[in-house]
Inverse folding.
């Protein structure tokens, strides 16, 4: 390379480096500017919260949307394999929402499509992020962190409704994903929506809908489970009933953790408890499972369908998922 | 600079056979891992075209198991083996000094043993935890131990590279390290520092946890340790490609390296700024303070500079070569580059892909843009044109001369080699378009979207067009895999021998080494290593200390 070439290259090289540095500085300035002016949607840490403590925090033991006295919405959401609780949430247009998130089991993602909300939901951590919904519509909530075999089915929805329609639903107690007002979190209790006050009697629960929303992601839409990971309920649920009518109630309320054997296959996994669902929903889904997929043909002659009262009276015993596993062993189930 | 006049000079080509054999073993093992991983790639691409072909793979239990295998083999195993092979061989040849062959075979043995352990664990579906293996999802102890051994083996090779350079410096006082050795040593030193995170994560936490000796691991801490290594590891993959671009490509196109000093400066910058940047993978993590995320955002932008330098220096070196061959005009000289040479073409296309990959990387490293695409299909779109093309296609290009050089076999069908480079490039670019686009539409990464519940089908209906593009790219890439490995195995099993060392290593001419002050200052790699360690401490220690003293240990779960 001769000297003139060398000089030309050196000159352009300096220009190139200056150009690159200026470009990056501009990018950085923009990043800092946007963070300072509109950075509210970024993820914030709310401190540590172990999975065992989740049930003691009203935000998560009674998850869902709560309208605070300031007019803002506080939305508590618990992520667990493979659903968000609650999985469907109604909010009014213009709602300033602060989403509080934690995980009961493994890492999950919480991404609201078409928005800036994207949170790594980590067990042991409390996270929150803010968003203002300015357009009505239905927004998918997607788990975007691999969490297990049915990760792809961990999809929720936020329905942003016109204000009048939201008020109407809230007043009628039919708005989805609202925290029960009587147990609303401190600070928001007195002014919490819905304005009608106490939640009216829930409409008759549809067990198959509850199943599709909460159970199907692991046990399968047809109750076949997933070989090696999640046991089937088809052809199996009646055996649980025969072993002890109260046992399925405990599994559903408190979960199950430990090695079990179902129809000759062994499973070593964890099922979360579903105490956050209403007694009516739990009874409906239990009855639905007992009758679906031909299960009804092997129910005992003295079979009594479950009632909401059965679940209500089984609550409050503070069992762990491992306790339920011990109960299973006592009943002689493999 | 006369490099030939060194103490332990080895002149006859035939005398290099032990080095060639062990290097060949590293390369071929890495490439076979790539073959297995890459054959699963089209199944992954089909999934992102909403077509579930996994049901036809009875030996794999799920898409997720296949994806774990694909990621571990391609991103971790292939790259590490390939790097270890070339980063010891090139310095040995440049310095004409002999590494400890027994030590290298021992390193190789440790890595292969690790590969087998991890492979068995993934194959048995006990460790479908992805190559990021975030706890509390828990794989088997064999999975973690195997990966740890692969890293240990690579550090053993790093030790030998550093030792080789130290010995040469002792025998050649006052001389500046030749450039390939300089780059290789800088890369290995960077890896030594960067691997600390994953070594602590796996050895202190995950292996005892998976073996049942400790009951819990803190997920946020483990994730942070993982990304301590997880970002610089991409520079560990990339820098051997840069060695080829800086040191070999100028010779291959008939030009010369336009600036030796700037090339060295780029590598020193990589050493210093590669590691303190992992938080940009954790912008959406709740457990890391926003201020430290911003600090690492800024440090990530520092590490863009050496890549910008590389883009300039490498391109100007190629232009010098093209103009010497009569190239004219602002852009017309590009036509004078040796486009008929598969080794050059593969690497030029790799560079081209890295322009887009690098731009996407700046997007991802930006605190508030990242949130739009974090953990979406955008991410695999990005790293398939960085590690998947810029690195892999460069490695392909290197093998087109390196495998004949090592084995003494003639390259099988240079024309098919050219085809493999182009199909890989086109396939990956299309894949990147499809995946970036899907990510912008909110399709998550690592999701078995072709196997969703019936009630959820149509969730990603708006992504139909990019899904179709991704699917087509998978088919093209399948062809590229067939083409490349036909060339590779065709060469290896060929009976057409060429004369020993008739394919020479395209080392640069040494006339260009300036023994000026800047070059001498850059040559103090030990000092730069200390600077790198200091920057890492500033960027990481406050956060890591807080995490280490506030751990929430959680038990492992198996959810697949």
């Amino acid at each position: 390379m001769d000297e003139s070439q060398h000089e030309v290259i050196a000159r352009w090289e300096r220009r190139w480096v200056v150009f690159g540095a200026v470009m990056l500085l501009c990018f950085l300035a923009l990043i800092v500017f946007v963070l300072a002016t509109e950075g509210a949607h970024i993820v914030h840490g709310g401190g540590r919260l172990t999975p065992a403590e989740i049930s003691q925090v009203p935000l998560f033991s009674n998850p869902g949307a709560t309208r605070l006295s300031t007019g803002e919405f506080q939305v508590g959401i618990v992520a667990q394999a493979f659903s968000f609780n609650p999985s469907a949430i109604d909010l009014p247009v213009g709602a300033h929402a602060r989403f509080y998130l934690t995980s009961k089991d493994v890492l999950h993602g919480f991404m609201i499509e078409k928005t800036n909300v994207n949170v790594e939901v980590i067990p042991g951590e409390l996270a929150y992020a803010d968003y203002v919904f300015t357009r009505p519509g239905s927004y998918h909530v997607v788990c975007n962190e691999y969490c297990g075999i049915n990760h792809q089915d961990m999809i929720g929805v936020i329905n942003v409704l016109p204000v009048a329609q939201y008020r109407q639903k809230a007043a009628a107690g039919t708005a989805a994903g609202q925290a029960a007002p009587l147990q609303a979190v401190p600070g928001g209790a007195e002014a919490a929506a819905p304005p009608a006050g106490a939640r009216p009697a829930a409409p008759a629960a549809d067990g198959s809908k509850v199943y599709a929303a909460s159970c199907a992601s692991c046990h399968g839409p047809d109750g076949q489970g997933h070989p090696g990971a999640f046991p089937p309920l088809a052809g199996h649920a009646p055996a649980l009933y025969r072993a002890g009518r109260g046992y399925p109630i405990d599994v559903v309320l408190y979960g199950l953790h430990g090695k079990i054997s179902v129809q000759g296959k062994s499973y070593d996994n964890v099922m979360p408890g579903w105490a956050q669902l209403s007694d009516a929903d739990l009874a409906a889904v239990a009855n639905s499972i007992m009758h679906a997929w031909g299960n009804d043909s092997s129910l005992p002659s003295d079979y009594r369908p479950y009632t909401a009262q059965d679940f209500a009276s089984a609550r409050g015993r503070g069992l762990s998922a491992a306790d339920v596993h011990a109960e299973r062993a006592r009943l002689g189930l493999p | 600079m006369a490099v030939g006049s060194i103490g332990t000079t080895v002149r006859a080509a035939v005398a290099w056979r032990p080095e060639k054999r062990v290097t060949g073993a590293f390369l071929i093992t890495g490439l076979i891992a790539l073959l297995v991983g890459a054959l699963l790639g089209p199944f992954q691409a089909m999934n992102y075209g909403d077509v579930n072909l996994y049901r036809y793979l009875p030996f794999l239990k799920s898409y997720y198991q296949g994806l774990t295998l694909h990621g571990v083999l391609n991103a971790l195993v292939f790259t590490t083996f390939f790097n270890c092979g070339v980063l010891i061989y090139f310095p040995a040849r440049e310095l004409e000094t002999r590494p400890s062959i027994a030590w290298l075979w021992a390193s190789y043995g440790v890595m292969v043993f690790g590969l087998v352990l991890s492979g068995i664990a993934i194959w048995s579906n006990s460790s479908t935890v992805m190559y990021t293996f975030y706890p509390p999802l828990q794989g088997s102890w064999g999975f973690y131990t195997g990966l740890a051994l692969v890293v240990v083996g690579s550090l053993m090779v790093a030790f030998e590279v550093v030792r080789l350079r130290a010995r040469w410096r002792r025998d050649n006082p006052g001389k500046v390290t030749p450039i390939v050795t300089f780059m290789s040593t800088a890369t290995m030193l960077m890896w030594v520092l960067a691997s600390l995170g994953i070594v602590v994560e796996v050895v202190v936490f995950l292996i005892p946890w998976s073996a049942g000796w400790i009951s819990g691991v803190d997920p946020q801490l483990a994730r942070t340790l993982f990304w301590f290594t997880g970002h610089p590891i991409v520079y560990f993959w990339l820098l051997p490609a840069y060695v080829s671009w800086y040191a070999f490509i100028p010779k291959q196109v008939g030009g010369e390296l336009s600036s030796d000093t700037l090339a060295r400066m780029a590598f020193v910058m990589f050493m210093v700024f590669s590691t303190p940047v992992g938080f940009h993978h954790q912008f959406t993590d709740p457990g890391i303070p926003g201020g430290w995320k911003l600090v690492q955002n800024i440090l990530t932008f520092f590490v863009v500079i050496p890549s910008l330098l590389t883009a300039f220096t490498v391109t100007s070196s190629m232009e010098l070569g093209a103009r010497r061959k009569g190239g004219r005009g602002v852009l017309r000289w590009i036509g004078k580059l040796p486009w008929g040479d598969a080794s050059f073409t593969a690497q030029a296309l790799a560079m081209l892909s890295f322009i887009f990959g690098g731009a996407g990387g700046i997007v991802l490293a930006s605190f508030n843009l990242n949130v739009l695409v974090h953990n979406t299909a955008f991410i695999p779109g990005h790293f398939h044109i960085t590690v998947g093309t810029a690195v892999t296609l460069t490695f392909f290009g290197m093998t087109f001369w390196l495998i004949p050089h090592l084995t003494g076999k003639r390259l099988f069908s240079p024309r098919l080699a050219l085809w493999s480079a182009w199909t890989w490039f086109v396939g990956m670019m299309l894949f990147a378009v499809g995946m970036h686009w899907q990510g912008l539409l909110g399709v998550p990464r690592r999701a078995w979207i072709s196997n969703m519940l019936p009630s959820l089908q149509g969730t990603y209906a708006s992504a139909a067009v990019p899904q179709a593009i991704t699917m087509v790219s998978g088919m093209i890439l399948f062809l590229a895999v067939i083409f490349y490995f036909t060339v590779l195995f065709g060469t290896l099993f060929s009976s057409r021998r060429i004369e020993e060392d008739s394919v020479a290593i395209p080392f640069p001419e040494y006339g260009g080494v300036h023994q000026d002050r800047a070059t001498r200052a850059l040559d103090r790699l030990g000092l730069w290593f200390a600077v790198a360690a200091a920057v890492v401490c500033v960027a990481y220690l406050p956060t890591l200390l807080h995490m280490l003293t506030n751990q929430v240990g959680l038990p492992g779960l198996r959810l697949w």
Summary: Chain A touches chain B through 71 residues (CB under 8 Å). The domain at 51-172 of chain A is CATH 2.60.40.420 (Immunoglobulin-like). The radius of gyration of chain A is 25 Å. Chain A is about 35% helix and 25% strand.
